[in-house]
Write a structure and sequence with these properties.
Helix content: 25-40%
CATH architecture: Alpha-Beta Barrel
Oligomer: single chain
Distance between the termini: 30 Å
Largest sheet: 9 strands, mixed
Structural class: alpha/beta
Strand content: 5-15%
CATH superfamily: Aldolase class I
CATH class: Alpha Beta
Shape: globular
Number of helices: 12
Number of strands: 9
Order of helices and strands: EHEHEHEHHEHEHEEHHHHHE
Length: about 300
């Protein structure tokens, strides 16, 4: 198998406008239990990604122990996604020393402009704090990338950002479209391609590019395994159930799944048992019919992300 995406925690210091957690009043704050981690066969995977739909890896209290666990028990590349605006510069220096055991290991920091623009989307974060932590991480041997969401208010800063990031030691930048725009966070003129959602409604759509079919899985903080982060939220599980109810060919799957909803949770089953569950059999068989799969992954990724080496 190829990649695991971990949702280590639902804690986050930021309040980003379009984030799933920002608009979820029922969000339960929790960290992934270590027993769940020990039940994951990480040695089978080539890439371990710490991102999460509803939390930031820097908030996970056992992150250093987790990185050491990965190093001891797998040969996988480890990538951390973070807003980088929490913890001390000493903490980030220590993380770099632990994380640098593979040259390909990296941390991708979210940076959306300069001091005057960065926090317009990433509310609750501090631009100067992010830069300080990036600098500390790089100086201690860490491999740092930057991901930038582009809006009308920061598109004029992109070239200047690239020069600055190269000077401080960033090795790659991802310039991404936002998943959405509104009156405050407006669409940029620089990248006028359609967003992921807008592409999904095109009549001339490309085939679904399913990362789960390529060997990726997403593990929620509560131990539930999902095909990918796009189906990681509770509402998508309910949507999946409703889809199977409507499709008679899937009726047998929904009946069995409702008998045992714990069948996809690592608290109660091994990883192999989860992969052999009726839920994943249905996903493998009928993912091309699922609304969420069509909405998120029937797109041209090169129109959403522009990647540049520094």
């Amino acid at each position: 198998m190829r990649q695991i995406d971990f949702e280590l925690t639902t804690y986050c210091n930021a309040r980003c406008a379009f984030c799933n957690r920002t608009n979820d009043p029922a969000l339960k704050l929790e960290h992934m239990d270590w027993n769940i981690i020990e039940n994951i066969p990480i040695e089978r995977f080539s890439h371990l990604m710490l991102l999460g739909n509803r939390g930031d890896a820097q908030m996970y209290p056992k992150l250093f122990d987790l990185i050491k666990h990965f190093e001891r028990n797998s040969k996988a590349v480890v990538t951390i996604h973070t807003n980088g605006s929490y913890r001390s510069k000493e903490w980030w220096s220590e993380l770099a020393k632990i994380h640098r055991y593979y040259k390909a290991n990296k941390t991708i920091f979210a940076l959306d402009g300069f001091e005057d623009t960065h926090s317009l989307y990433r509310k609750g974060t501090d631009y100067n704090k992010v830069i300080e932590n990036i600098d500390s991480y790089i100086k201690s041997g860490g491999n740092a990338w930057v991901q930038t969401l582009i809006f009308k208010h920061n598109e004029h800063q992109i070239d200047e950002m690239k020069r600055m990031l190269k000077e401080i030691g960033i090795t790659k930048i991802w310039i991404r479209q936002s998943r959405s725009y509104n009156d405050e966070l407006q669409r940029p003129e620089l990248m006028m391609n359609k967003t992921r959602h807008e592409q999904s409604y095109d009549k001339k759509r490309v085939p679904i590019s399913c990362i789960h079919q390529s060997g990726d899985v997403y593990i929620r903080v509560d131990g539930e395994v999902r095909p990918c982060c796009f189906m990681g939220d509770e509402k998508y599980k309910q949507e999946f159930i409703e889809f199977m109810k409507r499709d008679l060919s899937c009726l047998k799957y929904i009946i069995e799944y409702c008998k045992n909803p714990r069948s996809i949770n690592l608290k109660y089953h091994t990883f192999d048992e989860v992969m052999d569950s009726v839920y994943f059999k249905a996903i493998k068989k009928d993912y091309k019919k699922i609304y969420q799969c069509n909405l998120k992954c029937r797109v041209r990724f090169d129109e959403i992300v522009k990647e540049e080496r520094m």
